[in-house]
Amino acid sequence: xxxxxxxxxxxxxxxxxxxxxxxNNVDFSMKEGELRCLIGPNGAGKSTFxxxxxxxxxPSAGQVFFRGADITSDITFQIARRGIGIKTQVPxxxxxxxxxxNIWLSARRHHxxxxxxxxTDQIIERVGLGHATKQLVGRLAxxxxxxxxxxxxxxxxxxxxxxDEPTAGMTGDEVxxxxxxxxxxxxxxxxxxxxxDMQFIKAIAQxxxxxxxxxxxxxxxxxxxxxxxxxxxxxxxxxAV
Length: 241
Hints:
Elements: E1 6-17, E2 20-31, E3 35-39, H1 46-53, E4 61-66, E5 69-70, H2 76-81, E6 84-87, H3 99-110, H4 113-126, H5 142-154, E7 160-164, H6 172-185, E8 190-194, H7 198-204, E9 207-212, E10 215-220, H8 222-226, H9 229-235
Parallel strand pairs: 3-8, 3-9, 6-7, 7-8
Antiparallel strand pairs: 1-2, 1-4, 4-5, 9-10
Helix pairs in contact: 3-4, 3-5
């Protein structure tokens, strides 16, 4: 892999909580434009790894690189300024404001007023909320609130987007719409998706990284992952060789 093709890389990334090693010396890399899914049983370390990438946790050891720059010491807003968009599992939105107001306020942080107006309208249509522009976000369905936050992330025109369980709590129809939206976003940005819904993963995954005991167990295509006996044993609670 040519170094200039790598958008995100970790070297020896480790996260300890007292005597517990939640992420253990992880070397990870992904290319520009890639869509990578992180999976693993509960307690495997994938969510902790995600939080180290987004600086919700300060790693105990190791480094994180974005497009070759060491971002290990960056705090969350600095990470965002570099072109990394972060969407956590619980939507971070203003329930008392409308869909348009939520997205416009974010767009205005990145663009002048005229450009922010245009970008806001484009993003509202892009995430499928044109029918709800003036509705208060607090009155929207769960899936729609998730799309509002995704729209907020998109206002910064990130080159890498990190999504933590984007379909949690969604209806089947909402999951279907989210699948289409993520595929569309991937045309312009790389994505890392942490998710438990295997049907959703199968629908979007290009390459899958499986975590187990705080380390990467295997990385492969979804088809190969599904037939991998080691992965099956891990999910069934058997000892991984």
